[in-house]
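Structure tokens please, single chain.
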Amino acid sequence: MTYLWNNGEAIGLPIGKAVCVGRNYVAHAAELGNEVPTEPLLFLKPTSSIVNAAGEVALDHSLGEHHYEAELMLLIGKPLNKDNIADYKSCVAGLGVGLDLTLRDEQAKLKAKGHPWERAKAYDKSCLVSRFVPLAENDLTHSEFSLSINNELRQSGDTNLMIFKIEQLLSEIVRYFSLQPGDIVLTGTPEGVGKLNIQDTLSVSLNGETLANCTIA
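Here you go.
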């Protein structure tokens, strides 16, 4: 798989890790009965989890129910760390919409035991990514994204509604994880998460532009 730019050409960046943010919208925390965090909740997905959200996406349904979580996604184009965080905008190569897939039943079991979430969050094909579009002047402060399933709107989000804004998220992330070219950051999901079914058709959009279409197999 290669990352795709606006014109459909490969960007030339390697596939890196995905740094994900949990509970970054008040309504989503409420719908799952979770407390609103006082600092960003961070977790990682490996390169093996990342797959293009295009065509047919075959999931392993023997693992349990896969739940969708649509999120604004940043593609890192230049190294970003504590030393250059003030210049973070120049390090973001583009924006997209990602799906942080979750084995919700497995996650509930792990949370109840106080265990890490990797089995529920970091499994193969658990990170569906759209193509990326160039970063415009105001995109990081005001971008709207959405997910439709079978032509029905299921989720819509706006960066204005994030608990922790983009600059704050990136500052917190690079305190612990330096970001390299090809890494992606998923910035949290709004309310409306739910179960995926075989033959569901998914479409994700950013600021009114469709970035990916796929069918679940």
